Amino acid sequence: MVGGKFQELSVGAESVRLYVCGDDVASRHVVVFHPWWGLNDDVIAYADRLGAAGFSVLAPDLVRGHTASTVAEAERLAESRDEAHADAVALAAIDRIAPPAGPIRIGAVGFSMGAAWAIWCAAKRTAVAASVVYYGTLQGASVTRATAPVLGHFAETDPYESDEAVLAFERTLLEAGRRAVIRRYPGTGHWFAEPSRDAWRPEAAELAFGRTVEFLRELLG
Predict the structure, then answer these.
(1) Total domain count for the chain?
(2) Any idea what the CATH number is for the domain that residue 104 is in?
(3) Contact 170, 161 (CB under 8 A)
(4) In angstroms, what CA-CA distances link 55 with 1, 28, 74, 87, 186?
(5) Which domain does 115 fall in, by range?
(6) Beta bridge pairs of residue 170
(7) 149-180: per-residue pLDDT in tens?
């Protein structure tokens, strides 16, 4: 495939948008989960970059085609989202690549809100062999029951993910016997890797992207 395109993903009786890009025959597969803004241009551009780096990439729409451009809009969208639907979409995207117990190794990348699904899917599908999170954490059984290594990119100053939350996340991963690589980026805030946001810091975003590609190549073979 040259460039990316939108396709339909069947989720029960419903069809949702799915952005697909990269090499159709690539052996490295990645699913990208969007932040609370929805499946916007930032996520699509990020998926395209992963595709150009040699990955086969899927980016599912977790919120039925809605997008937000302001924090107030995003808060309303996040509060009104159908959690069960989003869970089903996330798993359907994974299963499109590999059966639930298949031999294919998949990377899951999540931004902010999407980080929860990048972690959660690893507890639900053994095919998920690596999770990468951008300024998002999770606690609970989904963290302790999975085994996939985790790479976390976190801002220096972040009102949404406190230092305590990040440390607790790292501690939970390590206590569960999981490999955890937690990176901090000086001079950054939440959304530092998203070009459309005022918080975007291109040098930090580029460093995080390079580390992500290296991590995924190592773990996906």
Answers:
(1) 1
(2) 3.40.50.1820
(3) no
(4) 11, 5, 29, 23, 29
(5) 5-220
(6) none
(7) 999 999 999 999 999 999 999 999 999 999 99
- The per-residue DSSP string of 138-206 comes to --SHHHHS----EEEEEEEE-SSS-HHHHHHHHHHHHHTT--EEEEEEEEEETTTT-TTSTT--HHHHH
Q: Which of 136, 140, 173 is nearest to 158 (CA)?
A: 136
User: pTM above the 0.85 mark?
Assistant: yes
Q: Does residue 42 contact residue 19 with C-beta atoms inside 8 Å?
A: no
| Residue bearing tokens 């569960």 | 176
Cα distance between residue 198 and residue 117, in whole Å? 25
pLDDT over 80 at 24, yes or no? no
φ, ψ (nearest 5 deg) of residue 111: -105, 125
Which pLDDT band, with edges at 50, 70 and 90, does 104 fall under? Answer: confident
Lowest mean pLDDT among 47-51, 79-83, 99-103, 176-180: 99-103
